């Protein structure tokens, strides 16, 4: 995820298997050339997701647990389950810090 502003590490809640992930209602999105771009209405910030980030965003159309998301990604991507979990946990943390997703 890219943003026009820096991200402060350590302010997002911990993401565990049972964490429920949902999209923030305060974000407008559009697909441009197969990638998702989004604008935070409340913060006035814009973000762009690469192809994998865009895939994860699309999978969050329906809220799901972190474990469910990782299991679905592991089926479709040829990578170690632990690597996928670590990478997605980091992405979700950055997205939560910017209120792009909600973690409960």
Describe this structure as you would to a colleague.
The protein has 104 residues and is an alpha+beta fold. It has one domain: Outer Surface Protein A, domain 3, CATH 3.90.930.60. 36% of the residues lie in helices and 26% in strands. It contains three helices and seven strands, in the order βββββαβααβ. It has helices at 51-59, 66-76, 81-97, and strands at 2-3, 20-23, 27-32, 35-40, 45-48, 64-65, 101-103. The strands form two sheets. It has a four-stranded antiparallel beta sheet, with helices on one face. A hairpin with a 4-residue loop joins strand 4 (35-40) and strand 5 (45-48). Helix 2 crosses helix 3 (81-97). The chain is globular. The chain starts with a strand and ends with a strand.
Brief sketch in words of this structure:
By secondary structure, the chain is an alpha+beta fold. The protein is built from 3 helices and 7 strands, in the order E-E-E-E-E-H-E-H-H-E. The strands form 2 sheets. Strands 1-5-4-3 form a 4-stranded antiparallel sheet, covered by helices on one side. A 3-stranded antiparallel sheet has the order 6-2-7.
